[in-house]
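Dear all,

This email documents one entry for the complex benchmark we are building for the journal club exercise. For each entry we list the sequence lines for every component of the assembly. Then comes the predicted three-dimensional structure of the complex as a token string, followed by one or two observations. Please use this as the template for your own entries, and keep the labels exactly as they appear.
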Amino acid sequence: MTFQVLKIFLRNRGATIGLFVLLCIVGTSTLAPFISPTGPWDMVGRPFTPPFGDKFLFGTDTLGRDIFAGIIYGGRVSLMVGLIATLVSVVFGLTIGGAAGFFSGRIDFLLMRLTELFQTIPSFVLAILLVAIFEPSIVSTVSAIALVSWPPIARLTRAEFLALRNQDYVAAAVSAGRTPWDIAIHEILPNALPPIIVLGSLGVATAILLESAISFLGLGDPNLTSWGYMIGAGRTVLRQAWWMSVFPGIAIIATVLVVNLVGEGLNDALNPKLNENRNR
Amino acid sequence: MRILLAIFRRAMQALLVVLAVSLMNFTLIRLAPGDPAAVIAGQSGAADEQYLKDLRAEFGLDQPMYVQIAAYYSQLFQFDLGYSYRQKQPVLDLVLERLPNTLLLTMSAFIIALAVGIWSGALAARHRGKWTDFGISSIAMLLYASPIFFTGLMLILVFSVGLGWLPAFGSQTFGENGGFAASFLDRLQYLVLPATTLSLLYAATYMKLTRTSVLEVLRLDFVKTARAKGLPQSRIMNAHVLRNALLPIITVAGMQAGHLVGGAVVVETVFAWPGIGRLAFDALLQRDYPVLMGVFLITSVLVVFFNILTDIGYRLFDPRVEIS
């Protein structure tokens, strides 16, 4: 089963290349202290050094800090926030959607109206309102992103639960006298997971974009550098030092792009039925 | 009769959204660290004890919670969104003053996105598997991965800083008064970059959707019949395929209205466009919470408004559909 999934995934060339590039990005960010001995806040050179020089690949910023160091250290924040926020939103969406789909009736009605409400309101405005009120920090950023990202997961989970509830093996489990909780966790959830994993992986891309926008507006954790923050800082000197904004921007685009590619590959691999349908 | 019922349902939905969003506002400001008076006075340190006391009295913070909620909602239903102490103006006035600019920006972006997205999506579908398709799909993927503020900055870098073709900031030349036509052209110039920036992400979404949807419709029997009748390709595409392929796009466009408004906040910040997004950003910097919450409420109403427009659009394209 696992082998089969891997085989289908690797057949998708875009996804394979995407996974490779993603691993490289994750690797450089994780190993940042070994790759760049100077940190992102260290003033190491002359301010406004243009890129592709001898010493600074991506140039320096207004205070002479190394942009390259900023990018590899900033990647830690962007990737981490993207990943954790998505995990939280998946757990939240699974709970809400699972409860709605499993219990149906009045609980379902209420939970779905709540989900619709969160899909209607402008999520980005809510996110920045939250971060602003609860003081910018990595925790508030993660919470805000998670709070606005769960509705699609909840809807998908509900749909999966509704579909799986009528399967024979669930009926068998019910007649065997197992508790609803046990059935939901051990019978329905594992079968509902594959499409949710796919949606979650694409959610990481959205979360990275949201984080970058929040930091761009200056609402990120003031003690941590991130790609969005760097672009925001470079914005006022765009005319003099384009490299301050351009390289972090390329980092975001590249990361989001490869996460999307990996997500599509996972979709092919985990939803073979859907795939047949599409290639018809 | 049915349409009246549909409008009534939408109005109820709008009311629910307003109730829920205002309840969130009410709760959020009380969940914040410190009491609302301290939060609203801001961390500037300028707030003295008397000021805080006045604020507390105004918010009725010494009253029980249900009195506070009742007072809050009775204010709200008199269209009182609170008062911006920083700008010394009622929040509603501040928001309404800037709303037309935001509407202009979002509507222009939406129209550009639809036009570009549908056109390129249909083109890609018609040349499926060829270089045109590959090129269009790749550009869409790239746009899909680009943060909207970065796209905006790059457009400024190329078209304002590099080529000097278009202005990068604001919405009109200050002191411009060369008559209607000149003033119209002037405003248009300022609109091009922000509207394009906001539209690109959605253009990519609509392109993907149109491509998939056109490919689906192309397989259907009535297209084969039209081909067999010997109709020219362009007529089949325009009269038969696109009309059917457009419905899912309208649905998604309605669902994305919230994103569009959120995107406008970022774009207005980048281009110093004087709309409610820019207002929200300035409020953010000054920790002007009444304004922020007012913007949250008004943008939510705006989304419901866009949803209603989508319903109407859906009916126009497909008269069989009833608004559910």
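Observations: The mean pLDDT of chain B is 78. The radius of gyration of chain B is 24 Å.
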